Amino acid sequence: MPSIHVEYFAILREKVGKSAEDLQTGAETAGALFDELAARYGFANRASMKVAINDEFSDWNASLSDGDSVVFIPPVAGG
Amino acid sequence: MSDFEFLRERPDLDALRGSVEDSHSGGYVAFEGWVRDHNDGRSVLRLEYEAYERLGVKEGDRIVAEARQKFGVTAARCVHMLGELQIGDLAVWVGVSAAHRDEAFKACRYIIDEVKHRVPIWKKEHYVDGDSGWVNCERCAEGAEHQHPRKAG
């Protein structure tokens, strides 16, 4: 199975209890990976969230490749 | 020097102003966002900013470049603080200089509005009553132990 590096920020980091992890996953898309982790860690649904792959905004249907870095982005609050 | 930067130490405001000085500019507009003592009806004690910095700098740079192109300003920059801040501290600074004031005002407004909506920065407020919460994130995790504020200010 592909290995994916996932980083967590803000409320997701607190929920997971760590800043990053490497996961072996069968999830083929960013959305499927989110759903897998949401079930494990208790994230709410992804309607309000965005996703980045390899430090660029992506979409939930984007397919994942071995070695990709994924970040889920909860609603932002800068300024 | 990047047009958008994250900082952990309070910047020298005169130096920031100097970074957008230009002999082609006849006007300078700056915006400072400060930490205030209340949000959404609750008394705020202090707050923390956290960012996904690698993407945040890219997106911030894109926003400043868009503002330059849309409004034809001479120079534009934005810095956003990270880490723990107290009431009254600088949270964000935007500076724009342009030939004329109108485009400087518009570009400054554009940058702060887009930064608030697009740059992956999160704000955790600590309240006087001892509670705390990630702003805008009350529905991001199931079974959240704390009540979270509804929206950013």
Description:
The complex is a heterodimer of chains A (79) and B (153). Chain A has 79 residues and is an alpha+beta fold. Chain A has a single domain, classed as Beta-grasp domain (Ubiquitin-like (UB roll)), CATH 3.10.20.30. Helices cover 24% and strands 27% of the residues of chain A. Chain A has two helices and five strands. Chain A has helices at residues 10-16, 30-41, and strands at residues 3-7, 20-24, 50-53, 56-57, 69-73. A five-stranded mixed β-sheet of chain A has the order 2-1-5-3-4, with no helix packed on it. In chain A, a hairpin with a 2-residue loop joins strand 3 (50-53) and strand 4 (56-57). The radius of gyration of chain A is 12 Å and the shape is globular. The model of chain A has no long low-confidence stretch (mean pLDDT 96). Chain B has a single domain (4-134), classed as Molybdopterin biosynthesis MoaE subunit (Aldehyde Oxidoreductase, domain 3), CATH 3.90.1170. The two termini of chain B are 30 Å apart. In chain B, strand 8 and strand 9 (132-134) form a beta hairpin. In chain B, the strands form two sheets. In chain B, strands 3, 4, 6, 8 and 9 form a five-stranded antiparallel β-sheet that branches. Chain B has a four-stranded mixed β-sheet with strand order 1-5-7-2, with helices on both faces. Chain B is α+β, with helices and mostly antiparallel strands. The A-B interface holds A 7, 9-13, 15, 41-44, 48-49, 52, 55-57, 71, 73-79 and B 33, 49-52, 54-55, 58-59, 80, 91-92, 112, 115-124, 134-137, 139-144, 152.
